[in-house]
Amino acid sequence: MENLSEVKNYPFIQGKNLSLCAVNIDNIKLYASWDNNPEARKYARILFPKTPEEYKKYMEKSQEGVPREIGFELWHNEDKKPIGFVGFNFIHWPNRMGNIGLIIGEPAYWKKNLGFEATCLILEYAFNELNLNKVNADMYDVNVASWKICEKIGMKREVTLEKHVYVKGKYTNAYEYRIFKEEWDELRKKFDFK
Amino acid sequence: MENNIALTFIKGKNIELWAPTLEKVNLYAKWVNLPTGRSFSRVALPQRISELKQLLEPKPEFEVQANVYLEIHHNQDNKPIGIAALLNIDWLNRNAKVSINIGEPEYWGKGIAVEALKLLFDYAFEDLNLHKLYAIIYTPNIRSKRVFEKLGAQHEATLKEEGYIDGKYYDSEIFTLYKKDWLNKIK
């Protein structure tokens, strides 16, 4: 039998290189370190320091009924550790629409196509388990890695918000990408993520 | 909760600015109550841990961020040594008050305040897009005055007999720094 004290993750969705696990209150300091990381936060434009207690509060919120936010820890299957976060910042149930968020918190895991895999897994979950109709993702022009993922998947740039975000002395654009269920049903066939 | 995880928010050469955490509230309390440090910052009433906890408690999401506290972390010694902060952020007029406290006296006189404030000014002007920063310094606090002058802050006003320190009234001086000056010339 597996040693119970060594069970460190509880996969909910199994991908090729990554698994999606429920967020874990024991890891709040790790989550805070990802959002504070100067290399990472400049792309997400996280402008205020995040305390571990903020994540604690978020996780202690009582969940009655259907949640409006769903978060997963991204677990690296081979290295056996959490490396980021993916989920829905917001779900509008009557409109069956979800807004996704993603962070690979450990820069050592950047440029390995993991963000792409995580996004595929969350889209699969959105359309085939949560029964959503539309998913969108917001990001800033400076966050090139994020919008490249959306382009690679075949999501459409639905909105450009011009001169929307102040980055290093300049006002830069923000984008909103979207994908519909019927689009994903076609696109998913091209990708190998499970 | 693992304790060795860094909460780095801004990287510097000798120091980093970290997100604060309730785990270290006792240390923060030691710094603000410190007899040698508190007189110039006009902390004349004892600061309770419960009050500091309230400051660090997560705010409701709809509340606008008025204060940003950052822990000063010494890289080489790998330990927290003080707090740098932007207080009373006025988002309409885009200004804020600068505050700094090196809580561990053995780190005084080593240029740490200068480095921490440089990082804080970059953050205030480049990330938060503020227009003006100010610091309120009591006249006997020559060390702080020197630090702000060194960084290019200008004396803008004097308030007469503003602070009662060690049995006497002293003037307070307001030093200011504008975004255009920091980004164009001084930096």
Task: Assign the CATH class of the domain at 4-133 in chain A.
Answer: Alpha Beta
Oligomeric state, counting identical vs distinct chains = heterodimer
- Structural class of chain B, by secondary structure, is alpha+beta
Uncertain spans of chain B, ≥5 residues at pLDDT below 50?
A: none
> How far is the N terminus from the C terminus of chain A?
27 Å
What share of residues are in beta strands of chain A? Answer: 25-35%
CATH homologous superfamily name of the domain at 8-131 in chain B? Gcn5-related N-acetyltransferase (GNAT)
Order of helices and strands of chain A: EEHHHEEEHEHEEH
The geometry of chain B reads as: globular
Give the name of the CATH architecture of the domain at 4-133 in chain A.
3-Layer(aba) Sandwich
Model description:
The complex is a heterodimer of chains A (194) and B (187). Chain A contains 6 helices and 8 strands. Chain A has 194 residues and is an alpha+beta fold. The longest helix of chain A has 15 residues. Chain A starts with 10 loop residues before the first strand and ends in a 7-residue tail after the last helix. By secondary structure, chain B is α+β, with helices and mostly antiparallel strands. Chain B has a domain of 124 residues: Gcn5-related N-acetyltransferase (GNAT) (Aminopeptidase), CATH 3.40.630.30. In chain B, 29% of the residues lie in helices and 35% in strands. Chain B has an 8-stranded mixed sheet, sandwiched between helices. In chain B, a hairpin with a 4-residue loop joins strand 4 and strand 5. Chain B is globular. The model of chain B has no long low-confidence stretch (mean pLDDT 90). Chains A and B meet through helix 1 and helix 3 of A and strand 1 and strand 3 of B.
